[in-house]
Amino acid sequence: MKVLVDTSVWSLALRRKPGNLSLPEQALANELAELVREGRAQLIGLVRQELLSGIKSKGQFEKLRTSLRAFPDEPVYTTDYEAAARACNACRAKGIISSVVDMLLCSVALRRQFAIFTTDADVTLYSRILPLKLHSPRKNHKDPKNTPNALS
Q1: Which residue from 21, 44, 103, 118 has the least number of CB within 10 angstroms?
Q2: CATH number of the domain residue 52 falls in
Q3: What is the C-alpha to C-alpha distance for residues 50 and 72, in angstroms, rounded to an integer?
Q4: What is the pLDDT of residue 145?
Q5: Looking at the domain assignment, is residue 69 inside a domain?
């Protein structure tokens, strides 16, 4: 199954220094590297934009932009935006406030039957309302301290 990767996970792997990651964060970054190796990691343009926003140096921006170029944007259509609005309304009706980016991510994942890989606790809340599949790091990975990160 393909996995739509949220900004939070890409950011851990690509915007932070591996030596500054906690063991759980290293496991997330290593899982993303494994998804990339398997050809299962997917990206939408809005997540790309979030990742590239707020980069202070041109050099860092270009390095990140170049890394992300390896991942084509999953197409987003009018029906995805409409589904995102419906999902937002469904969550709001149950007292759960959502963001535009989160709902678009959810609608794209639902339409394509992708799992979502995120550290955002809000997505777990949305999964109570929406039939989302959430991706978690697999337990059979080697010790994350000894596994090279393929995204570095």
Answers
A1: 21
A2: 3.40.50.1010
A3: 15
A4: 45
A5: yes
How many domains are contained in the chain? 1
Q: What is the mean pLDDT of residues 125-147?
A: 78
CA-based R_g, the chain, Å: 16
Residue 89, domain extent: 3-140
Q: Would residue 147 count as lying in a domain? A: no
Nearest Cα neighbor of 101 from 124, 128, 122 is: 122
**In angstroms, rounded to a whole number, what is the distance separating the alpha carbons of residues 84 and 102?**
9
| pLDDT above 60 for 107 | yes
SS3 assignment, position 22:
coil
Q: Is 76 a domain residue?
A: yes
The three-class DSSP label of residue 119 is coil
| Residue 43: φ, ψ to 5° | -140, 140
Condensed to tens digits (0 to 9), the pLDDT of residues 25-60 reads 999 999 999 999 999 999 999 999 999 998 989 999
